[in-house]
């Protein structure tokens, strides 16, 4: 068995060797101000997308909900606007949502993931893309992880969007809790993955805007599959304990 | 994207349909008394194995450390016995450890996992086996998940040990913290996976014996791969935050 500590020790040495001594390491808790950025949510009319849009709007973020149909997006936005703190969400078709946002959260079903991103490559160029898709299958024994050819939904996004800054985050949230206006705090950390520090810092900061949440850096996209498919385990937790389970990382 | 809640709702209905109304569901927090059981730790001379053996002994459990060499196992046990609360650990070769224990934790390196279990099939028959092996690779970018042919280390164990009660747990522990006698509490939940409720309940109860830990049921063995490989992400967390990260499940 490989232990995190031993691995960490050797990995940390490798890290120190590659970083010049003159350049002090950045404080990982120091994150940028993202309050002025517009957040788009592709698939924003589904439960998770709606929930995230609501929480981000409640936190003061400008939010655009995207859908194939601009009309359905508008209806969903109008419904959220009636909830306390839900003003500031507007709706648009997916292409407009992508084009008009600084950060674009991908919250579509796995089945439509590849086609949608292929179609939006141009609108998503230069944007921070946050993939939160969990490729899962279901049978009578419950949920199980699907195995995307690219390794994970996030790596598929990175392959299809070479001009975007692809990250992965927001996988383990309860859509029920996100959408419930009676719930003030969402008690969970958000694991943020990506290749580029500036982009993951921005996504961590965005997660931290939502009351109760914290964005924690958790590695490169090649380690996204297990984060995405851990949702299958949380579903088992939810069944056994009748809960809406979230995750906290200790010692951070 | 599939949300845990929707999936949970439908899965929960399926569950209720299959369970007769006359049989009330067991309280998932009600766990058996395991204080009288002897715990063996195969690979007990490695950092994780030693750490687990120490913590379990400290909790009052009878513990046998297993190693290929009975002498090395004896030396490691003698070293642990000198730590506060470390008495009650003894050493033996792996086969004796398996034969004399009620619960056997498999804490060997992934490379030797299959061969060891094949050799111990007879001694492990009828026992509760707890696989805590994380099959990982390392390169200059850090850690990444290996893909065992059986799906996961735990599923390999289940395939090689058809006469044992195979579970998976204790994947995300810091060997440094486990072995540090100055640390009183280990601040983490332990995800426990398996096919058989009685076995996973026992392993959850065992995890709960260690100060600070809690055993949480987290699904079937087919969902073990992501739990095992999440260690790659925790290694990234540890590097970024200079931490010994653990996991907590919220709302449970």
Describe what this molecule looks like in 3D.
Two copies of one chain form a homodimer. Chain A is an alpha/beta fold and 252 residues long. Chain A has one domain: 3-Layer(aba) Sandwich (Rossmann fold). Chain A contains nine helices and eleven strands. Chain A has helices spanning 4-18, 47-58, 70-81, 94-100, 110-119, 153-160, 175-179, 197-209, 224-241, and strands at 38-42, 62-67, 89-93, 103-106, 128-131, 136-139, 142-145, 165-168, 189-194, 214-217, 246-250. In chain A, the strands form two sheets. Chain A has an eight-stranded mixed beta sheet. In chain A, strands 6-7 form a two-stranded antiparallel ribbon. In chain A, helix 2 links the parallel strand 1 (38-42) and strand 2 (62-67). In chain A, helix 5 runs parallel beside helix 6. Chain A is globular and about 35 Å long. Chain A starts with a helix and ends with a strand. The model of chain A is unreliable at 1-21 (pLDDT under 50). The interface between A and B is large, with 77 and 75 residues. Strand 11 of chain A pairs antiparallel with strand 11 of chain B, so a sheet runs across the interface.
In short:
With 252 residues, chain A is α/β, with parallel strands linked by helices. Chain A has helices at 4-18, 47-58, 70-81, 94-100, 110-119, 153-160, 175-179, 197-209, 224-241, and strands at 38-42, 62-67, 89-93, 103-106, 128-131, 136-139, 142-145, 165-168, 189-194, 214-217, 246-250. The first copy, chain A, has a single domain, classed as 3-Layer(aba) Sandwich (Rossmann fold).
């Amino acid at each position: 068995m490989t232990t995190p500590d031993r691995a960490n020790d050797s990995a940390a040495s490798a890290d120190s060797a590659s970083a010049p001594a003159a350049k002090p390491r950045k404080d990982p808790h120091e994150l940028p101000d993202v309050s002025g950025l517009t957040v788009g949510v592709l698939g924003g009319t589904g439960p998770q997308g709606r929930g995230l849009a609501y929480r981000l709007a409640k936190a003061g973020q400008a939010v655009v909900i995207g859908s194939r149909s601009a009309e359905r997006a508008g209806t969903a936005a109008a419904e959220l606007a009636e909830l306390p703190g839900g003003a500031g969400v507007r709706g648009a078709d997916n292409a407009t949502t992508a084009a008009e946002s600084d950060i674009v959260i991908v919250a579509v079903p796995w089945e439509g993931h590849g086609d949608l991103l292929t179609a939006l490559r141009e609108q998503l160029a230069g944007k921070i893309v946050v993939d939160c898709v969990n490729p899962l299958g279901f049978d009578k024994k419950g949920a199980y992880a699907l195995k995307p050819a690219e390794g994970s939904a996030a790596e598929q996004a990175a392959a299809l969007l070479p001009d975007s800054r692809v990250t992965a985050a927001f996988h383990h949230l309860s859509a029920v809790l996100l959408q419930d206006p009676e719930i003030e705090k969402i008690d969970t950390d958000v694991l943020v993955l990506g290749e580029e520090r500036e982009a993951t810092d921005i996504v961590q900061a965005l997660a931290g805007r939502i009351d109760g949440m914290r964005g924690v850096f958790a590695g490169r996209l090649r380690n996204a599959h297990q984060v995405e498919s851990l949702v299958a385990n949380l579903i088992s937790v939810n069944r056994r304990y009748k809960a809406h389970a979230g995750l906290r990382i200790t010692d951070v």
